[in-house]
What we know:
Blueprint: E1 2-5, E2 8-11, H1 26-35, H2 42-56, H3 63-67, H4 74-80, H5 85-93
Antiparallel strand pairs: 1-2
Amino acid sequence: MDKQIAGTTVQVNEEGYMTNFSEWNQQIGTELAKEANLDMTPRHWEVITYLQTEFKNDVPLSIRKIGKSGVVDIKEFYALFPIAPLKTASKIAGIPKPASCI
């Protein structure tokens, strides 16, 4: 289905995750973060960039993998994205909900 985000129409699934990563840009990411009540910092964007890179490389994402990434530890990941961290960060990154998330 279509959703207007940051003045752009993008495709999302029933849970609000973007279904076409090529439609994502940082303005859309910022708007999605606002919907999650997050103010993005450079540190947030570092994590988002890491998630997007892993997605592009077809690497399955999990909290544990992110904690071992060297990019961010689990404690900081939860501090940056306090509510459902992997689901929230994935949504902001414009990537599908990871299979490890229920």
